[in-house]
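Q&A log
Question type: sequence-to-structure
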Amino acid sequence: DDKCYLVDEYIQCADQTGCGSDNDSTAWDYQACAEINLLVSTNNKTDMFPPHIWNLQNLTSYCENKWGVTPNPDWVRTYFGGTPEDPAKGFRESGSRIIFSNGLLDPWHGGGYMSNLSSSMPVVILPEGAHHLDLRAQNELDPVTTTKAREVEIGYIREWVKAGREGVASTAGAVEYKVGEKKEKTLSFHRKMIKYTQSVAAVM
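Response status: OK
Response body:
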């Protein structure tokens, strides 16, 4: 007999879908006020949530009363860089060795990166994965695609750690591109990961 999670166990917070009552939920409440603003109303027609108008005015009122913080919808773009036309611009210009994983069963994936930002910032897609399923402990019921995604992620991390230990100034020994040059150095390991990522993308 499966039990449903009681909606009344959630508490109102800066996330319009509600929060829990543990420390993680409290931290998320503050973060949704100070950094990641969630401005999506619900109507119970195109979603499963009760009708609820949630706009910047409502969010600001809540956050100022609760935390003394005024939400800034542009905070993420201001802090990390990027433009409306190219939100990933800041990451590509200053970031490296970051794995962006997205489970296609996770509603949040619509706001994530779905293609590699660079050779050292790959995207790993979990076609049958929910919210950060790849970061959870292994389970015998895990989809095969999730198991493979974890292997890909571990592979990247191992390469990056190895490169760091060896003092190699490259993007994890994966693919090295130099601006204005056609020089390309490809390792077999990275070719396998690219092949896997492309095969996963093909089923999207």
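Response note: The CA atoms of residues 128 and 143 lie 7 Å apart.
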